[in-house]
Amino acid sequence: MTTVHPPRPSTVHHAEPDPTAPPERRRGPAPPPPPTWRSWLIPLGVALTAWLLFGNLLARAGVEQLDYTAFLEQVEAGQVAEVTIDPDGSVTGLLGDDTRFESQIPTVLDPGELTTSLQERDVTVSATGPQISPAQVLLSLLPLALLIGVFVWMGRRARGQLGSIGAFGRSKATVIDTQRPTTRFADVAGYLGVKQEITEVVDFLKAPDRYRRAGAIGPRGVLMVGPPGTGKTLLARAVAGEAGVPFLSVTGSSFVEMYVGVGAARTRDLFAEARKRAPAIIFIDEIDAIGQRRSNGAGPVSNDEREQTLNQLLAEMDGFDPAEGIVVLAATNRPETLDPALLRPGRFDRQVVVPLPNRDDRRDILVVHTRSKQLADDVDLDRVARATPGFSGADLANLVNEAAIAAVRDDRHVVTALDLEVARERLVLGRRDGSNALLPEEKERVAVHEAGHALIAALSDHADPVAKVTILPAGSSLGATHQLPVDERHLHTESHLTDTLAIQLAGRAAERLVFGEGSTGAAADLTQATRLATKMVREYGLAPEIGPVGYGGDTPMYLGTEPVRSRDYSEVTQRLIDEAIARLLTDAEDRATDLLDGNRQQLDELVRLLLEHETVDGATVEAIAFGPRLVPGPAPTPAA
Q: Which CATH number is 359-428's, of 3.40.50.300, 1.10.8.60, 2.40.30.10, 1.10.287.110?
């Protein structure tokens, strides 16, 4: 039983074992079907082969085969009407009863006697010259055809190689004209400040004279930074739809190849294309692929191709004429890795932060993604937006899609509030598996653990209210306590942080209070609490032992990975930091234990309701903590 913050900064505490699951494999898309004319190749080949092999046999069907002796006997008997003789001695002819026959004259014998016999009996004799059958013609031409085919194939391959060599230095940018894009700023929900920044770029390209009269120079480059899934590329597509100018879109990885110098050549070609189409917009997605800091030459590893590409990009942006009307848009979620020369004024003049959407933005995004869905009357998008802090636009789109899938699974086409709740739990906690049944003693321990989380959250003055407590396993969690923030916080006080520590350690404190010992289920709780306490001591300056000193990073890490950096304090300071972290965690657990001990009756009541109904809503938790005891009816249980 553990208190775990999900991958997004949503407040959910849940009990978690330590299972291992094999990774799932995906199959790639099926290849395109072959053209229809290929299906005729095999039947035609079979028919041609059969004609070559058996055509002569079919033509000779019904012809009587006579040896030379029998042929002479037929001539002597006067049964032969006419014969045709070819230079090889083959004889074909017609008997008196209109039967066709074939025979072979031995060429080593004197044919004079046969000629006399034929003349005496008035047999019509004719002769033919050398004949070649169609099969013999095809067989004789086959080697020549194969030789010509080999030469044609080699010539085409050589031309293709020459063409690909010439295309190495060509830019792989996709040019979007003014009619094709359909995305507009109206299709991008929220982000009014970001839209205003980008709209000024679009307005500068549409009406540069307005800025010129005021003596203003439009931005040369705009860098959009933010976490993944926040809509940076969608905003760039909206710019393409709003600008009314050519839009050249390219990814950073398409510049770099295995051949040195190709990236720089493609950069030159990209900007040359933009100058031909000016005014124009160049959009480079994932610019960190080519814009990373250059090495100082002291390191053992360097990437000459990437650095040459970056140098060419810097030179091209320096060579802009303000009258050309070319603006470079770029997107990245790793701004801390970019080279400082790329970020200086005159290159990327503006940095537009595209953060995770706030509560109002999330509601607007949900409205956009539910336009094509039929929602039940009980769906409250305000509540869904409140329940999804830390969700990006891509996460919200996935949430709505998962809810629609849950509705289809129940043979419905209307999405209900329960479907959205099931989808949220699936994204935050994992799939609910009915086969993951708990033993009776495990179920009781999970109920005690989650009841401790929920009760301390309800009794804390600065904590978010509890929305739901459940002991139904989902994903890797055995139970969960959901808290929904009333307001969107941008600043956290020390009181709120200390309450959060107490809530995170309340599950472990409840287990130790009721059972006299802890369990492995609190592992994730301890990890989250230790991480928060470490930030309080090292970055926020909230520990008297250390004082107002911060050792945090200078740049945002949108990918959620802490940089590896050397420690900039002494061993003595490290010891003080460790002691301060341990003190904060110990004080938080002691506070949770004291509150639970003083409200033991409420704790037991909440455990009883969880064991009986498995899911208890936040209103019941509040009533147990502060008001008269309520025994609710069975809470709705989310579907698997």
A: 1.10.8.60
H or E element in which residue 429 lies: none
Question: What pLDDT is recorded for position 124?
Answer: 75
Superfamily of domain 174-182+191-294+304-353: P-loop containing nucleotide triphosphate hydrolases (3.40.50.300)
pLDDT band of residue 634 (cuts 50, 70, 90) is: very low
* Average pLDDT of the segment spanning 243-263: 68
Residue 617 three-state SS = strand
**484 contacts 626 by C-beta, under 8 angstroms:** no
Angle, alpha carbons 299-304-308 (nearest 5°): 130
Return the sign of the alpha-carbon dihedral for residues 518, 523, 529, 530: positive
Which has the closest alpha carbon to 365: 333, 331, 400? 400
Domain boundaries, the chain: 12-17+437-559+567-626, 55-127, 134-166, 174-182+191-294+304-353, 359-428
Tell me the longest C-alpha to C-alpha distance in the chain.
141
Smallest Cα–Cα separation from 239: which of 191, 173, 188? 188
The token pair at 33 is 């079907």
Residue 587 banded pLDDT, cuts 50, 70, 90: very high
Q: What is the CB neighbour count within 10 angstroms for residue 78?
A: 13
Q: What is the DSSP string of 218-276?
A: --SEEEEE-STTSSHHHHHHHHHHHH-S-EEEEEGGGG--SSTTHHHHHHHHHHHHHHH
Strand partners, 468: 482, 617
**What is the rounded distance in angstroms from the CA atom of residue 95 to the CA atom of residue 75?**
9
The number of angstroms, rounded, from the C-alpha of 625 to the middle of its chain's C-alpha atoms is 45
Q: Which residues are catalytic?
A: 450
Confidence band, pLDDT 50/70/90 cuts, at residue 423: confident
Give residue 500's pLDDT band: very low, low, confident or very high (50, 70, 90). Answer: very high
* pLDDT: which is higher, 320 or 400: 400
Which long-range contacts (C-beta less than 8 Å, at least 24 apart) are formed by 315-323? Answer: 316/267, 316/268, 316/271, 317/220, 317/221, 317/346, 317/347, 318/346, 318/347, 320/220, 322/217, 322/218, 323/208
**In which band, very low, low, confident or very high, does the pLDDT at 468 lie, cut at 50, 70 and 90?**
confident
Q: Which residue has the higher pLDDT, 549 or 279?
A: 549
Contacts of 638 (CB under 8 A, 6+ apart): 418, 421, 422, 425, 432, 472, 615
